[in-house]
Amino acid sequence: MSSPTDNIRPELLEIHKKLLDFAKTGIPDAIQIETLKPNRPNQLFEIVVHALSAKSTTTYEAINLLCKEDFCADALTLTKSLIEHLITLAYITAPQQNEIKNHRAQLFTNWSNISIHNAKTLSSHFRMIPKISLDEMLKVEKSAYDESFKLHKEECDKLGKIADRNSWSGLSLSVMAKRTELSQIYVLYWVCNQFAHPNIEGLKSNVSLDYTVKDIVGAIFHSGPNPGNNINDDLVLSFITYCHIINKIDKIFHLNLDNEIEIIKSNFVNVNQGT
Q1: Measuring CA to CA, which residue among 257, 209, 198 is closest to residue 237?
Q2: Top-confidence residue, 153 or 36
Q3: How far apart are CA 241 and CA 84, in angstroms?
Q4: What per-residue confidence (pLDDT) applies to 66?
Q5: What number of other Cβ atoms are within 10 A of residue 7's Cβ?
Q6: Do 101 and 169 contact (CB within 8 A), yes or no?
Q7: With 0-12 CB in 10 A as exposed, 13-18 as middle and 19+ as buried, what is 103?
Q8: CA atoms within 13 A on the CB side of 193
Q9: Side-chain half-sphere of 258: how many Cα atoms within 13 Å?
Q10: What is the separation, in whole angstroms, between the first and last Cα of the chain?
């Protein structure tokens, strides 16, 4: 009988973890020291970036653990989330003007706070299940959503922004990806999304990533993932995505981590190419 690790290239998993260890030890402390300094002109923007960085790191760590145990579809579901973090981070940090960066950070913060409010409202009603019917539950959900959106609209009005019911930025994820030159990454997000829903393809245990996706990964990373092995594909995809995130954090906070990141990345590329 094969073990969960039989399908994994251990050298890829090791470098995948090395990038995680590097980020956990080097980046959070440096960022936290900077963002907590008083009277910083862009403090909200920096705190939002810090929060996205921290969440991305925990997601990347969970992907590593799932890949280690050969839970491919679940790892791809989290890789989808990691790509969402990257596109969101890229869109918030893209503008050159600090005023626009702070504006986007404020909108993202409003949306996050409202989401928390919405979740708390719904959670109090979940405890009543099965005491209430599905129709009653849907009414409660709509009421909580409407209340949350009202708060979001009020905050958007203050910032001169048209409120959107589906997105904190008023744009779809695909449009944000296009505006930040991450369209190729978004295609990979779409593929990961197929594993996140209960459809026939996503339920198959040995579904291979589409050949077009392999081409895209190869174009981004100058080498395709190991053919026919989903876990190794996801190690490559999540590694690419997290490298993008770390590079952005490095530039925003001027951490001068370029050399260390490049060494880890080069090692990963060499191992993946078998050189």
Answers
A1: 209
A2: 153
A3: 10
A4: 92
A5: 17
A6: no
A7: middle
A8: 10
A9: 4
A10: 30
pTM of the model: 0.78
- Total residues belonging to the chain: 275
223-263 pLDDT, tens digit each = 333 333 467 888 888 999 999 999 999 998 888 888 999 99
Give the mean model confidence (pLDDT) for residues 197-202: 53
Between these two residues, 173 and 190, which has the higher pLDDT value?
173
Q: Which amino acid is at 40?
A: R
DSSP assignment of the chain equals ---GGGGS-HHHHHHHHHHHHHHHHHHHHHHHHHHTSTT-TTHHHHHHHHHHHHHHHHHHHHHHHHHHTT-HHHHHHHHHHHHHHHHHHHHHH--SSHHHHHHHHHHHHHHHHHHHHHHHHHHHHHTTTTSS-HHHHHHHHHHHHHHHHHHHHHHHHHTT----SS-SSSS-HHHHHHHTT-HHHHHHHHHHHHTSS--HHHH-TTPPPPHHHHHHHHHHHSSPPPTT-HHHHHHHHHHHHHHHHHHHHHHHHT---HHHHHHHHHHHHHHHHT-
Q: What is the 3-state secondary structure (H, E, C) of 128-169?
A: CCCCCCHHHHHHHHHHHHHHHHHHHHHHHHHCCCCCCCCCCC
Q: Do you find a cis peptide bond into 38, omega within 30 degrees of 0?
A: no
The whole-angstrom separation of Cα 26 and Cα 255 is: 9
